[in-house]
Amino acid sequence: xxxxxxxxxxxxxxxxxxxxxxxxxxxxxxxxxxxxxxxxxxxxxxxxxxxxxxxxxxxxxxxxxxxxxxxxxxxxxxxxxxxxxxxxxxxxxxxxxxxxxxxxxxxxxxxxxxxxxxxxxxxxxxxxxxxxxxxxxxxxxxxxxxxxxxxxxxxxxxxxxxxxxxxxxxxxxxxxxxxxxxxxxxxxxxxxxxxxxxxxxxxxxxxxxxxxxxxxxxxxxxxxxxxxxxxxxxxxxxxxxxxxxxxxxxxxxxxxxxxxxxxxxxxxxxxxxxxxxxxxxxxx
Length: 284
Fold this sequence. Notes:
The chain is of the alpha+beta class. The chain contains ten helices and eight strands. It has a single domain, classed as Serine Threonine Protein Phosphatase 5, Tetratricopeptide repeat. The strands form two sheets. Strands 2, 4, 6, 7 and 8 form a five-stranded mixed β-sheet that branches. A hairpin with a 6-residue loop joins strand 6 and strand 7 (129-130). Helix 5 (170-177) packs across helix 6.
C-alpha cells in the first residue's frame, strides 16, 4: 500500500518541469481589470520590492518576467531596467497565470532611497488596461540605525544571485548577526534556495521551516512550504512529502479568496496532488 502512495523522484521532476496553467476567476461580461498591490509601502535600501499583479477577464495571462511581453510597469520617477533579471522562484515554472508576483528591485535599478509611484499596464492586442497606482518608499538607514549593518552586508544585488554560488555568504551572515532585522525573513528564504541548489537538503529544510513557522504571513511563506515538499521528495521521504502537499493544498484552498495569494504555488501544488491521485489509481 505504501508503494501505491509514493511519488517517484522521476515523477516529481516531470511534474516540476512541465508547464502549468493556473485558474483565475473571470469577471462578468468579459470586463478586463488590472490590479497591482505592493506587499508593503516602506522598504529598506536593497530590500526586495514585492508586488502582485492580477489581470482579470477573458484569456487573462501574465508573463513570468518583465523584460518583454504585454505587461509593462510604469515607475515615476523613471528608473532603468536591470539587464539579466530573473523571475521570482516558482514563477518561471508556471506557463500561464492571471496573477503573478514580481520583485521590482530585481527588474529595475532603483536608487538607495526615494519615493515612487508604480502602475501596471497591459497591452496585448485587446483594449489596453492600466492599474491604479501605488506608492512605495525606499529608506537608506544611517550608521546609527539598527538596519545599517544588515543593509551594508547585503551588497550583492539582485537577489536572484543568492540562489546560486554568486555571493559571499551575505544572507547567512545576516541571519546569524542580525536575526531581528527586517531583512532576515528574505535571507532565510534565499538561504533555503541556496542550500537546495547545493543539494544540502537538511540545511534547506531548516531555513524553509524558519520562514513558514516564524513568518507565516510573509509573501514567500507558501514558496518556502513548496520548497519543503521538494526537499522531502529529493530525500526520498515520499510519504512525508505527500502529507505535506496535502496540507498545503488544504491551506491554499481555505485562502483561495485572497487575491494576494500565489496562484503559481497553488497551480504547482494542485499538479503534485493530481500526480499523486493518478499514481494511486494506476496502482503504483
